[in-house]
Design a protein that fits this description.
The chain is mostly beta strands. It is built from no helices and 11 strands. The protein is about 0% helix and about 55% strand. Strand 7 (about 70-75) and strand 8 form a beta hairpin.
Length: about 130
C-alpha cells in the first residue's frame, strides 16, 4: 500500500482545509485509515481514524482536541480518505500524516500502522 497525502497549506484561524490521502494497491476498502500529526518538537499524535469493521461497516474516531471540528471520511471508489478540518486553531499547526493498517484494533497507536504517507504541512496563523 502506498499513500499520498495532499491538501495542506496556510490558513487563518477559524478557517478550513480538507486533506486527502490517495492509496494505491488493492483492498483499500478493508483498510483502517488514520490521520496523525506532528508539531515541531512534539511527538506524533493521533488525530482521527476510520476503521474497517466488516463489509461496508466503518466507524470514525477522533482525538478529543479535534472532536466536533474535524471529520474523517473515505471514498472507496477513489481509494481516498479525507480529513475535513474546520474552525482551525493555531495549535492545529503540524505536519499531517495519513496511515493505513489492517484490522481495527489499536487505531490510536501510530506504531500499529504499517503504511504511511509523506506528510502534508498545515499552518494556521492567528
Amino acid at each position: 500500500v502506498q499513500l499520498q497525502a495532499s491538501g495542506g497549506g496556510l490558513v487563518q484561524a477559524g478557517g478550513s482545509l480538507r486533506l486527502s490521502c490517495a492509496a494505491s494497491g488493492r483492498a483499500f476498502s478493508s483498510l483502517t485509515m488514520g490521520w496523525f500529526r506532528q508539531a515541531p518538537g512534539k511527538e506524533r499524535e493521533f488525530v482521527a481514524a476510520i476503521t474497517w469493521n466488516g463489509p461496508s461497516t466503518y466507524y470514525a474516531y477522533y482525538a478529543d482536541s479535534v472532536k466536533g471540528r474535524f471529520t474523517i471520511s473515505r471514498d472507496n471508489a477513489k481509494n481516498t480518505v479525507y480529513l475535513q478540518m474546520n474552525s482551525l486553531k493555531p495549535e492545529d499547526t503540524a505536519v499531517y500524516y495519513c496511515a493505513a493498517k489492517y484490522y481495527s484494533s489499536d487505531y490510536r497507536s501510530a506504531s500499529e500502522y504499517g503504511y504511511w504517507g509523506q506528510g502534508t504541512l498545515v499552518t494556521v496563523s492567528s
